[in-house]
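Mods, move this if it's the wrong board.
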Amino acid sequence: MNHHPNEHFDIPAAGLPSEQLPAPSADRSAREPFWGYEDVLIFAALALPSLLFAALLANAVFLIVGLAPPKAVKVLIPQFLGYGFLFAALYLLLRLKYGRPFWSSLGFVIPRHGMTASLLYGPVVAFSIAIIGALMRTPQIDMPIRELLSDNVSILMMGIFATTLGPLCEELAFRGFLQPLLQRTFGVAGIVLAALPFAFLHGPQYGWSWRHILLLSLAAIAFGWTRYKTGSTAAATVMHATYNLTFFIAFLLQGKDISA
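Not the wrong board. Structure tokens:
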């Protein structure tokens, strides 16, 4: 796979020995990215079954061992498991169907100039989105997440999820897997097209408020632009994580909505 000129250091990923992997065909090697829309459809189709199976498995374990965890734990543990199942399937798709590594194929590499800029861009975008939201008179939404933040353990779990696994999985899916394919077809407009499903995925928690969906789309475009300019999904993930961290701190201090 040809990397973006700004990509210098691949993040290693454990996997099957290369001699056990099928060699990619010549015409697949020439394409960037090498996967197709049928693979995106397979990935999307597996999302709901993965989360449902994880929820059933987690609740069965809670029942068998007699645990009564806080609400946030009951919600987040199945999500952790569901994401694990879903990305395990994507890992197998890339390794077994195409004979390609997982992390570097999805652009999860350290950019040449490091991650410092991405760490700073997150709060900058967060404050910008907050200002735009205020100018648009975006209404406050009574979000279900408030019910999950009723104790210290739940707050800690939610904070960890919002700044680690959540951004990682969302960036791998939308900026690592979907955006390169849309850019291959539509050019730079693919950044916007990849941002839309990201925003609509969060729609239910904001009561389908068009203002919130617009703000989420703008944030997602910023993440996508970072992915495009650096060639690094890792940079977009770090930016997304510090963006979420900024809003999470604001939520704890002032009770404001968490934007993504």
